[in-house]
Amino acid sequence: MLILNWLLLTIVALAYLGAGVLPGVLPLVAILACAGCLVTGVCPGGPDRRLALLAAALVLFLVATALPLPGFMDAAVGHRRAAQNELSRQAIQDAGKLSLAHEQVGGFALTRDRAGTCRTILMAIAGFAMAAMASRLRQPHAGTFLKALVILAAVMAAAGFAGQHLLPQGKSLWWTFPVPHGRPVGCFLNRNHFGGFIALLCPAALVLFATRLGERRFAVASGWALCFMLMTLAIVMSLSRGAWLAYAASMFAVVILGLASRRLLMIAAIACLLALVAWGVTRLPHEELEERARSLADPLSSQTAQMRLSTWRDTLRIVPDYTFVGAGANAFRMVFPQYRAATTRKSFKHAENEYLQTAAEWGLVGVALLVGLGVAVAGRWRRYHSRETADRVIETAVGGALIVAAVHAVFDFPLRL
Fold first, then answer.
1. pLDDT at residue 155, as a whole number
2. Distance between CA 248 and CA 408 in Å, rounded?
3. What is the CA radius of gyration of the chain?
4. pLDDT value at position 367?
5. What are the b/e assignments for 118-128, b being 16+ CB within 10 Å?
6. Which of 159, 44, 64, 52 is nearest to 114 (CA)?
7. Residue 140, preceding bond cis, omega within 30 degrees?
8. Is 45 in contact with 53 (CB distance < 8 Å)?
9. More confident residue, 296 or 17
10. CA 238 to CA 188: how far, in whole Å?
11. Residue 279 pLDDT > 80, yes or no?
């Protein structure tokens, strides 16, 4: 029970305080998550030592890229990085001669954005610590945790819908915390982040509805159906096409997983609910919604798509100059202006594609560690799937959420939220 309560406290604090957007929130969450592991006696990785070692290696890799290196190592850090370091040293020395700065120059880190990399380190530590605690949950606490997440997502969906369409938030999160940029929806900076997050929990809500209906617990099933429809409405009305595609992919995956387990009643219930939701969506009178839906027929023709494609091409140009260890986690915004081919709009802070940005920022070493971690997680999920005692609701919810994240990562950067 202590692990469950600690997890919920940390997640609610993260959601209320701006999902890591506001200054100081991410360190607080990382401290809370690590303190939770200490208080509850959870060892990161648990019985899966390979997973723990890969997570530790990933954090150590990020820390290594943020540490300043002595100048004599410039020859080993790549020609582009070495040239940048030399220009910086010369600029600091010139400023020192004018008494504008101290002439003494320290070492330079591998990352081109040390503050951004430190933020990523905090995100990784917090994520691994919370995953370690969640992996120790057993029934009924694991089921309670999943239900609490769905309810929280439904509340955030309702609040986000209100903030986007009924009571505009302006430049603030939750109508309370001011932010300098973006078009906030709920605790997120824009509708794409909001829609993608809500889509993560839709598979869980859908499976909870179908399972409770199969148990003939009609009142409870109605509650989960309401949560699902509310979350679907929020995703549709977020007007985020990336979130729509991620949502559609997860719904398809839930149906496939249901067929694989031969739960025909569940599939029938899901099909009926999806049909009802689809019918309701087609009846929504909203001009911008209709326009964005029509654009899906020819997705590459829109100005947004062309800007993304241009950004993706420019991002690929970064990779050869930072092949082995990348430009540094969260350093895309620092190096991208040197590679962008068009200046039709302000420079992107993210590549709007998690896969390309990760290749540019993490290099071969970082990508290899991430792939290894992903393989280890997939192996753990497969072993859980093979157990006769496995909770199929949790299994399907996790599988659906992973598919949402994987699809949404093509159009956004969900792993950095």
1. 95
2. 11
3. 23
4. 95
5. bbbbbbbbbeb
6. 64
7. yes
8. yes
9. 17
10. 12
11. no
Among residues 241, 366, 372, which one has the least CA distance to residue 301? 241
pLDDT at 358: 94
d(CA 313, CA 351): 10
Question: Are the CB atoms for 351 and 311 separated by under 8 Å?
Answer: yes
What's the average model confidence in pLDDT over 152-166? 93
Spatial separation of the C-alpha atoms in residues 160 and 148, rounded to whole Å: 18
Percent of the chain with pLDDT over 70: 89
What are the pLDDT digits (tens) for 191-227? Answer: 888 999 999 999 999 889 888 888 888 899 899 989 9
DSSP assigned state of 183:
-
Q: Transcribe 131-195 into DSSP letters.
A: HHHHHT--TTHHHHHHHHHHHHHHHHHHHHHIIIIIS---SEETTTEE-SSS--BTTBSSHHHHH
132 is written with which tokens? Answer: 């370690």
Both tokens of 254, joined, read 């839930």
Q: Specify the amino acid at residue 335.
A: V
Residue 356: CB atoms within 10 A of its CB come to 21
Residues present in the chain in total:
417
Q: What amino acid occupies position 81? A: R
Candidate from 166-180, 199-213, 387-401 with smallest mean pLDDT: 387-401
CA angle 145, 54, 203 (to 5 degrees): 30
Which residues, 6 or more positions from 3, have their beta carbon under 8 angstroms from its beta carbon? Answer: 36, 40, 42, 133, 136, 137, 141
Which range, of 98-112, 172-186, 324-338, averages the lowest pLDDT? 98-112
Average pLDDT, integer, range 138-145: 87
CA atoms within 13 A on the CB side of 78: 19
> H-helix or E-strand containing 256?
helix 241-260
**Residue written as token pair 């309702």:** 158
Two structure tokens written together for 53: 């070692």
296 pLDDT above the threshold of 70 = yes
Angle at 118 between CA 117 and CA 119, to 5 degrees: 90
* Of 144, 111, 137, the residue nearest 325 (C-alpha): 111
409, two tokens:
């990562």
- What is the helix (H) or strand (E) element at residue 257, kind and residue range? helix 241-260
